[in-house]
Every structure is written in structure tokens, then in C-alpha cells.
User: Fold these one by one.
Assistant:
Number 1:
Amino acid sequence: MKEEITLRVNGKQHTVNVDPATPLLYVLRNNLELNGPKYGCGLQQCGSCMVLLDGESTPSCRLPVSALKDLKIVTLEGLQEDTGKLHPLQEAFYEEQAAQCGFCLNGMLISGVALLEKNKKPGREEILEGLDRVLCRCGTHSRIIKAVETASLKTSR
């Protein structure tokens, strides 16, 4: 049975009419047309569906939308400012050529932003731990880590 649910996504209120058990990822992609979060494994294990929930990187592929009514949801699209300026980590990914196949890109950026919001100057081990929930299949780990370090240097000044 469908129900009207209001979500706060990327700073805007959205009301959707869906089954309350619908996973957030489906609502983001199908109802709100936000395609940054990707469907990967569907088991909350690969990280391609990550979003920020009140600042915490969280997989969205199995998360029932009814549980999110009062939470602040940020997707990959929400990292960019209204002016079009990219988040410093997005800029660093571009500078370091860290984006490759796109499977993990959403999860790496969301997890990296969550990490940098909590720790402006993470060490290499902290970066590895912060990105641990996201699988990368194309082997750009070293560039991704370098991008987080670059963003950290720019934002911690």
C-alpha cells in the first residue's frame, strides 16, 4: 500500500507516493531522478549506492524510505554547490584522475566527503578505513587515496 512520504534530499523537500518499504535508492533514482547513487550488489556490501544520512555515509539499496522522514539526505548531486562549484573532493578526483569506470565513484566520493567532514586531516590509514566499505574493481585505489589527501590539504588550510 502506497503512502505519501516527505524526504529532505540535497536541501530540498520532496514528497513521493510509494510503498514505505521501498528502498531509498529506488526512490532517489526512479522518483527523484537522482542517478548519482548506483545499484551495485543490492546487499549493502559494495558501496555504489552510498548517500550521506545526517553526514554518515550509508548504503541506500536496502534502506526503507519510511525510516528516513526526518533525516538529511545528500546524494552525489548534492555535493556540488548551487553555483555549480564542485565539492573540493570532486575537484581533487578530477585533478588526480581518480575517476575510472564509475562503479565505485559515487561511494568513494560520498565516503570521502563523510570522512573529511569528521577529520579534516586524515592519515593514510584513516583514509583506507574511511573508504573500506566501497569496492573498487578498476584498480584506481592509489589515485583515490591521493585525491582524498589533495582535498584534505585544500580544505584544512
Number 2:
Amino acid sequence: MKTEIPFTRRDFLKLGSFLAASVSIPGKWAEIFAAGLEKMTSHTPVVWIQTQSCTGDSVSLLNSTDPEPADLLTRYITLVVHQTLGAAQGQTFMKALDDAAFLNGYLLVIEGSIPLGMPQACLIGGRPAEEILVKLIPKAKAVVAVGTCSAFGGIPAAEGNPTGSGSVQDLMNKHHLSWKRKLVNCPSCPPHPKPIIGTLAYLAAKGYPEVDEVLLTPRFFYGTSTHDQCPRYHDYERKIFSRHFGDPHGCLFKLGCLGPLTRTECPHRQWNGGVNWCIRASAPCIGCSSPHFAKKKNFPFYRLGEKHHSVEYTEKDRKGV
């Protein structure tokens, strides 16, 4: 997919600065991201596999603004395999998929959960996705689970699902594949393109990042709770709460906001090119990056008072990057 278009060091530094600024992390990260992007243009191919997915994570990637989608896919990322974004079809695609396993130092991106109890529920070219992933994972430089479905199971793994769907970590445990210092989770439904691109760039430049010990999420993008960074946090401290959905004033905590249980950088970079996000639209956070998202049948997107999802929020959760 990549075309030969010359880059300058300024191009990489410009995009690296955008990635760092989007989450308000120190300027030194711009150099790291820039170095990673430079490597991805020629030395670090990306293999992207979709399993039980709605394709929302790929669509989110295409909402990238800095750079634009066309530049991202044709200039910055050497994307060798992608079921929906690639042009190859049929046997041509399957050959590209088989050849990918012999590439040097590729980053494997997995979008969607895996039907661990019913492999035939997700086939790629007639082969179970599980079988394909087990072949690709050991040879990958790193594995990035993009989206809550691949990171934690998400909606396909909801209680009562017949396919036995699970996360990438569940898949690796099942096949005795070591995930320590190899698997990075980038949850959210869907994740913003900047955490995806930034995580890939860091892996290319510096290797395995510092992650949360339990969630395996990179701390530079998922280090603080949405609640702590919320522009309405001062209302929470003053106990000024919104009275109804759409209320432009007050903290949305009592309307069921799951921001205290959610770690994203949504408040900084927002969505649709920085135009808006849930809280700014006066809608509570539904906790889409939480490992508990949609896991139970009775999971309400908004807390119903304190009877569901009681929030155990302490000062310990205020840890930064």
C-alpha cells in the first residue's frame, strides 16, 4: 500500500508533536514518536487482522486528521495485510497473509474478539481466525489489541454468548503463548486513532512501553482516569451535579457517568478532529475502555444510582503518567 514519497525530518517531528500534544505529555515524546513513525515507513511492517469485529476500530483509524487517512495508510504505515482496507482479495489475500509470517519484525494488530469456544464462528479464507493468529503471534515483534473487544472481550464476549469469545490475552493463555512484554492493549469502543498510531510508533522506536500491570494499557495514553481530566471536575469537587441529560452545567456523576472507572485521554484530544466528546455533549461517559464494558447481561451503560457499578474512587486513582 505504501508509495515512494519522500519525507523530511520535519514531517516526522510535526506528527510526533501532534501525538504528544494530544495527551499533554512532555515534549520529549515527540522525538520518540517521530523516530517510530520514521521506522514504520520502511523497517517495521504492520499486519492488521480483524476477527469478531464491527470494523469500528478500522473506521476510527480512518478518522485520523493529523495525518489524513490517505497519508497515514500510504506514507506513514507499511500496512501489508488488512481485510477491508487492502485491495487484495481471495487467494491473493491469503498468500499475502501467509507471506506475512515470514516478515522481519512486524507489528501484529488484532481488532475484535476471538471465538475461543467455537473457532468456526470466525473464518478468514476458510480458516479459523484463531489458527491464523496462533501462527502469526509468536513471530511478531509485538501484538497490539486494538479496541475493547480484542483487549477485554467486549460485546462479543458478553455473558451468555455462544461462541466463547475472549480477548487476545485469553487466546494467548489458551495456547500457552507468553504475553508478558509482548501484548499491549489499546481499548475503547472504538479507540481514537492517536493512541493506535502512537502505540505503534513507540513500539517501533523504543520497544515495549510501560503499561498498567493489570490492564496492559500504555501509561502514556491510558495513565489517568477520564474523571480526573474532565473539564467538569471542578463541579464534582463543589458538589454541583447535572440534573438531566443534556444539562450543560454540573458534573454528570449522579446521572451515571462512568468516568471515574475509565482511563482514556478523551478530555484532551476529543473526537472528530477535536470538535466534541461525550461530556462536552452533556452525555455521561459509558466506560467503553473499561474491562467491565458490556460483560454482564444487566450491564447498564449508565450507572443506576449507586446500586449498579458502585464507584470505589480513591486518591490512589489520581496517578499520572
Number 3:
Amino acid sequence: MKTDIIEVDGMTCGHCKSSVEGALTSLNGVSKAEVNLDAKNVTVEYDENMVEVSKMKTEIEDQGFDPK
């Protein structure tokens, strides 16, 4: 398991938080995703053999936000 923090622009409310966390935890290999709205990031725990950060960023973009 690995933990990374992905910076994300555009998240402002609880709905944004739920969208990003839901999208990430639906990916195979992601065990936990926790958005911090104040810090504008999401902490993700995942199995690096099952999912790549680039795939997670694509999922965040699909929700309408801008991962860094």
C-alpha cells in the first residue's frame, strides 16, 4: 500500500468532497480517499500494483476538478 496527496483545484463544498472521494474509492486498488477542502487536496491510500496516480487524476478530472 502507498499513500499520496494529490492537490486538486475547484473543490469548494461537501458535494465536491463526496464526488472526488466516491470516484477514487470506486477504482480497483484504492482503499481510502479523504478530501481536505481547506488544503485543497485529497489523500489517497492505494495499491500501486493495481492503480496508477494518472488514472486517479483522470477520475478527478471526470468529476469536473483540476488535479495538479
Number 4:
Amino acid sequence: MSVKFEYLPDRTPPLTQRGIIAWLRQNLFSSPLNTALTIISLYIIYRLLPPLLNWIILNADFIGDDRSACTSGGACWVFIANRWEQFIYGYYPNGERWRVNLVFLGLLPITVLTIYFLRGAARFYAILATLFLMPIISWTLLKGGVFGLSTVPTKLWGGMMLTLVVSSAGILFSLPLGILLALGRRSRLPIIYGACTIFIEFWRGVPLITVLFMASVMLPLFLPPGTTVDALLRALIGVALFASAYMAEVVRGGLAAVDRGQYEAADSIGLSYFTKMRLIILPQALRAVIPAITNTYVGLLKDTTLVSIIGLYDFLGIVHSASQDPDWLGYSIEGYVFTGIIYFLLCYSMSQTSYKLERYFAPERTR
């Protein structure tokens, strides 16, 4: 006697196990403690969010030519709109600002896209060209004085362009220098090991503000008479060396995280030291420390505000300077809120790029 089985139709889960109700139970009210924290958080949001929205958007003034347009009692974004170009270019001459746009909106995106789409040896050579040619081309365009370009003194640079110049110099040079220093600190040659260790410990042992002060005030005293080096260039060198010391320790941590078997496997097939490092060890080490590298870069971006000690006005410095204008006194809060939003967007973008790189280089990624 045969028995015929019939499948019952699928039934939807109960309401408490799906949809918004299930999400609320799992994420906000999963326990008495989480319920209490959720209620407290909602109360804080209820008390803070409405007045904040009123000040930032609903009661704010956006259009106008001067402070007389700010009459609604909310934020005066007219101040930001009127000083927008100064915040971006500092005191860079109006007729020469196309050079800034060409560097940051033209050359930089093209370089990044070129490196992204190239593969193999072509990508390696593109990175080398970026390291050696991009800084020279960018400095020549921004500073001028050759090829018919008028000279723009670095004391006129400021705002976001100066922030990007300083942070880019640190980001661009700190990684290759940090890799070399990390390899040197793991070297078995006492001279190389000692030199790299002294360099790293010295630069990590002093604050960045001291480095900038020494580069601006003390370094010219040791130069031969008649020798002058641009103040901003000295600061860029100081920032790059300072960041490379921190990056060296980050990379050294990545090198230590690589399994010993990888070194032994590379040695067993007769690879040279540089081939072993370039093809096997460094890719794994750098992949392991992508979050730490991003953390160093985010810190470096925010530390660029310290260039104010040598008389340069970065993005935060130029916003502070503009808020002290007698025509806009009393609107510094709008300036600092605007600065915080811009810095948050930059740092958040760097963090998201880091997450994408982690997923892209993850060993379990399906290519």
C-alpha cells in the first residue's frame, strides 16, 4: 500500500518575526537594558533634534549679500556663501585659480582613475610616475614662475587647497617612506636597523607642532648664507617625514602579522629579497593594515590645521580668520559648523574608501 505525500503551501512567518516589528525587537528592544537605552536615546533626540533643525535649516538664512540678510534668528549661511571662494582658495589670485582647479579637479582624478584601471606592471609604473612626477607638476602649476605662469607666493595659499596640499604631501610620501623604514627596522644589518630605529623613534618622539616650528624657524639657521627654502616646502617635508615614522610602525605591524611560513615558502623557491617582498610579503602585510593606514591618514588630514603656527591659513584657519572680519562678527558658530561638516565628509569618505579596499583585497573575495 503506497502513501501519497503532498507538500503543504508555504506559510508566512508571524508578524512578530518579520518586517519592522521584528527589526525593532531585535535591534532596539531585545532586552530590558536595550529598551531603557533606546527610550533614553529617543528622548535625547526628541529634545535636541527639533531646535537643531530649526537653527540649521528651517529658520536659517541662505541668500543675501551681507549680514543684514540674516534676520530670521537661525543660522546665517549667507556668511558661508559670501566667503565660499576664500574658504576654498585662500588668498590665491582670482585670475590664477584655474591652476588650482586643474590640479585638484583635473590631474588628481585622472591620476587616480589611471592607477585604478591599469593592471600589473603598468599600474606599478603609474604609481612610480605619480610619486615622482605628480608632486613636481602640481608644485609647478600652483607656484608658477616658469612656462609663462606668474609666480604665486605660498603665503597667499590657503583654505581647502592648502589643506589638500599639506595632507596630500604627507599621504603621498609617507607610505613609500614608511615601507622602506619598516623593512629597514626588520633588517639584520645593524647599521640599517639602527638608522631606521633612530629615525622612527626621533620623529615619533616629538609632536607635529614642534616639527613645523623647527622647519619654519630653526632650519634656516643651519642653512648656508644666502640659501632660502620656501616655508611651505619646509613644512611639507616635515609633515612627510613625521607621517612616515608613524606609517613605518603600521607597516611593521603588518609585516609581523604575515605568517612565518610565507617567508619560508618564498625562500624555498629561490626568490630574491626584493622579489619576495614585492610579490608575496608586502601585499599581505599592507592588506592586513589597511584600517591602520586609513587611521593614520585621517589623523594627518586633521593635523594639517597646525600649519597655522608658521603663519599659513588652512581651511580651519581661513574660516576662523573670516569670522573675525568686523562685517561678520558673531557668526563664527556657522563657520565652525561648516568646517566640521566638511572635515566629517572628507574623513568619512576616506573611511568608506578604506572599507571598499578591504573588501576588494579580501582573500575570500570572488573575482
